[in-house]
Specification:
With 790 residues, the protein is mainly beta. It is 13% helix and 39% strand. The strands form 7 sheets. Strands 1, 3, 6, 8, 9, 10, 11 and 15 form an 8-stranded mixed β-sheet that branches. Strands 2, 4, 5, 7, 12, 13, 14 and 16 form an 8-stranded antiparallel β-sheet that branches. Strands 17, 19, 20, 22, 27, 28, 29 and 31 form an 8-stranded antiparallel β-sheet that branches. Helix 2 packs across helix 3 and helix 5 packs parallel to helix 6. 46% of the residues are buried.
Amino acid sequence: MTKYGTSGLLISLSSLAWAVLAVLRLAPAIAAGNYSQTFDSAPQGWTSPDATYAAANGYYTNTTGNTSQYTLAVYGSNSWQTDFTYAVQLYSQYGNVQAPANAVGAVYGYQNASNYYVAWFNTLGTAELIRFSSGTPTIIAKGTYSGAGAQLWFNVQIVRSGTNTSVLVNGSPVITHISQPEITAPGEIGVFTNWDLGRFDNVTVTPAASSTYSENFDDDSAQGWSSINGAWNATGGYYANVNYNTAATIAVYNNTLWNTNYTYSSSLYSTWESPGNAVGVIYNYQDANDYYEVWFNALGAAQLIKVIGGAQTTIAKGSYTGYGSRVWFNVQITRSGTGTTVSVNNAIVFNNIAQPELGAGKIGFISSWNLDEFDNVTVTGSAAPATASSGDPFPRIGGYQIGSPQEYWTASYQQQLAKQNVTILSYWPGWGVDHGTTMQQVVTNIKSINPKARVFLYINTDSLLPGNNVPNAGFYPVWTKLNQMHWWAYVNGSSGPIVAASGYPASQEINNTLFTPPDSSGLNFIQWFDQWVTTNFYKPNPAIDGLFTDNVLTAPDVNADWNRDGITDSDANPTVATWYRQAFQYHFQVLHSLMPGKLQIGNSGGIGIASDPVPEYQNIMDGGVLEAMIGKSWSVETWGGWAEMMGSYAKTMAHYNNPPVAIFGQEGDPIDYQSIRYGLGSCLLGDAYYYFTDINVGYYGLYWFDEFNHNLGQALTPAYPTSAWQHGVYRRDFQNGIVLVNPKGNGIQKVTLETSYVKIKGTQDPITNNGQTVTTVTLQDRDGLMLLRP
């Protein structure tokens, strides 16, 4: 009989058995090599203390899992610390909507029965990243994956880079770049089940490829290096700063990221020797406010420093020999796990100092109140993954084509929609009947043109036109049910009058909170409506990737008797806001359970401007729409400025499951190309998909700009930079180019590039996008620019 629970995390371990095993097992080696196992015969090195695991029929399986809360087997003959990929095929015997805890998964970083990490999967398409610390489980991140189901094989990849973890299922990112710095020692890999009979096959562990970089500046050029502040030149066979009257002048190398398990060496030279005149090297550089630094003055003093959020902290102090002004000395920084060791002239100054805060970043130089010189740079070891992002390449194009006419049946419109990575469409039961088609056929056609396209259907839970309105005839059953159950939002009580929906004067507000009474089947409004849309939206159109819920606000925007106690509740009441958010939280939980493997996204840009935390919306949506971030009177950029908008952008994206399917919206004039470059560039500083709509037309049609025709590849630097690159201009680097944004109010700015780049060649604004090779560019106020690598 299949056992199941509701938490998704049910644990029963035999502490004694594990303790005995720990005594008997030999200490594993710290391995950097490859490992593979097909289980075609009895696997060497695999053990399980609390269940019977065996190789059978060419795979590894447990035989008592469906009667046990938790079973575990680990490979104890080797261990890995970081910068590796663990791949395994998984199979779950049991699972249905009533049994979300039937699960299989992969273990990594295993230390003992109380400390390890787990990537957990049930057959409903739910994935979780879990940390066990001193025996206490904590869910670190959640995601959803496609291809889920009982008795189906699926492929899992766990990518460890430094202290970060990413999880892919069947090649698609499910959870990306989650910080897991707690376990610093090498750990074992393993497999597990939860109330399930699992099967496991084709295990591989592949360490990250080693990367070597060297530069001696002998050609008086610094390819890939750029100044963060101050002026830097490659001359005389070394790299040097020109500005000395500054507390910190920084230059960084842009073309590769490193996180851990690497050694960075360089020769340094200090011109002056007062205590505050210093020279140093930078590593794990994220931006001007987040990096690590090793600092030296010419009197023999050394400091290990971290800069986090702009705040500088000295972690350790030491001294070194061979110091003096106008004397070259050699520095070696070794990153192992989250530890840092620093040597000067081959003598250790700092030994294995813990620095777990920052992920993959750049290397660089720093000078403080000094004229300094740098030479003979080498970096050897494991480079971070080639990209700081995953998924669709940039620029990512989104579509919010919910407006009339909804003529998705035309071949020309389908061709346009297929050019987008993500599309949101209007739909109602019966759509397309008059034209001899179905939404399922439309989605299938779009995906036949672009197999990677993702399509979502629009729903809302907060308002509805009264009566049998066209095109809302398909919603007549909902209107009837709302009347029958008195689920409308009333001024007071449960009978009337009904509150008019804000912004939709012809529509009536629905009470979509958890206070609505149950019907004869025991279903409240959310439960009933979510079952209705599952039956009428998803089941006839299984090719869709999920649903888009409009108006996922942080508080209601009308006054109503939300808790049905006869008193009108203010929409400004924080308690009312909490009721409202809890209802949406439950709504997304229900949809995920009813539509396993499908994504649920929402119109949720208000998260980013909320003054209070919104924990109810943390990790409940798989993405959403940040509607009209630019272009409307109520847009964040209009009333708050560019920095406020970018902060809102980052805050909203942080609430979504990884990787988020989110659309950054802009409205305006489709021939105002400078404004479009500014909006697209701002979007590209983060990880969302970009959507533009003509403010005079609304959400219909597709506008295609010259920039869309150029593939930037994946991002090489982190999203949402918190400090400017040069002269107030912000920058993000990609595999095939860079993007620059000059914020509103920063004036006209001319910036100098560290090497040659090529302007894209286009027809819409040929003066700007002229295809020329450039080393400097000028950006107007409120402007953006895409540049390509030669």
